[in-house]
Amino acid sequence: MGQTPYDRVKQARSINRPTGGDYIRNIFTNFIELHGDRRFSDDPAIVGGIARLEGTPVTVIAIDKGHTTKERVAKNFGAPHPEGYRKALRLMKQAEKFGRPIVCFIDTSGAYCGIGAEERGQGQAIAENLMEMTTLCVPIISILIGEGGSGGALALAVADRVYMMQNSVYSVISPEGCASILWKDSAKAEAAAASLRLTAEDAKFLGIIEKVLSEKEIGTKPFYDRLRAMLVEDLSQLTEEPELIQKRYERFRKIGSETRSTAVGQ
Amino acid sequence: MALLNFLKPKNQLEEGGRTAAPIQQDAGEPEKTCPNCHKEIPISQLWANSLVCPCGYHFRMKARHRINMTVDKGTFKEMFSDLQSTDPLLFPGYQQKLETVGNASGETEAVICGTAQIGKQDCCLFVMEPYFMMGSMGSVVGEKITRLFEYALQNRLPVIGFTVSGGARMQEGLVSLMQMAKTSAAVKRHSDAGLLYIAVLTDPTTGGVTASFAMEADIILAEPDATVGFAGARVIEQTTKKALPKGFQKADFVLKHGFIDQIVPRREQKKLLAELLNMHNGG
Prior knowledge:
Chain A is of the alpha/beta class. Helix content of chain A is 42%, strand content 19%.
């Protein structure tokens, strides 16, 4: 590839990449958008609703950064508020009620960082999604399409299968944030990006994701056709899975369980 | 320098204008200055008073001190104490940091787990350690807490957890982040079995710990004046370029906004926990 991890970060952030909304419009048909969390408001940073995947109704949820400056400002550059996560959870519970699979597209620098977000419980909203998603009885596939910024990304990624586009990144903290905390110098972001192991290949190596998805012909019809075919295939497998919730539990349970033991027993 | 940053409060703004100096039994200092009332308080008086200043200021407390204060004497049995991080990312300087912090704090990781009795009732207990990388959650913290909830589920025991954390541990990258999902899954199973989980949020409880098991309890208590939030106050100020309201992310603020059940001073915690356990029939 010849690219540094920080080059990948820049690519993941590029405004020329397809947005979450683009993925929904091009992979699915008959998309019906459903708004609002029924508690406070509607967060434009997260778009969700019902659509058809080769005819089958599915619930789709996407963090959408928008294309134009106006859109991007309205969508807080894809940084969701608590009401966005609560809307997503409402739609996921609805999917469970009606037996629809769930597909999430993730692209965020992180959950919105602001006074209102804290007042309305950003931490609680994310925590509730994590907890509830672990036992939803319908298949969930989450795809990181750009930035996967920490808890704000994970809140839509407690899935049966998690995939990353080749040039997306997934990280516990931004490289700039990491550099500023560890080395008191945000200019050391390049080094931090390398140390954080945030590329799709790293995530695959660490056992965090199942697949790295090719970006060949990204944004074109063959690209979306390929993703659609993959989703159809993977969801049909997951729909047949009798131990779905148990498998999802084990999927996350095993991560970081290989801790070093210094003594015998407990 | 880097080590000191983890052992000591980062700066006035992050700590909400408070500086909680580490207090140790063998510190050999006769007095401590209270960051709230600025009076000199004799160490022995603080120790007799659960590290609470007469003005009400709660000093930061080591996990083992808290365990002694909370459980019935001699009932705590530690579990999973042998787990240590594998440094999954081979993050520069991390292994050495773990060693130095371990030596300085006398702990091997940022949480202590076990079983105990509180008011003669059995429970599982986890207490996070502020003097180990500010209670940050890496694979070991996630694994120990997950194992504790699994043990509590198998043995039908309630869980009581004291949180203090700067969030996910960045030196373990995505492995740390996934501990949020892993612990949440274990809390959910425990909860779905009808078992009780009480969290006591202490200063500071932030980031990935707030956004996972700290906010997932049936009953959420907080210590007076504890900072409880997701994003750091300084980051919010820099991002929004707005002055933060007075008392932002303090326990009173979080209570007012509906995210915790009660603020409970340290000296009243044991009695309340015992009564809550009792009302839930020991779990």
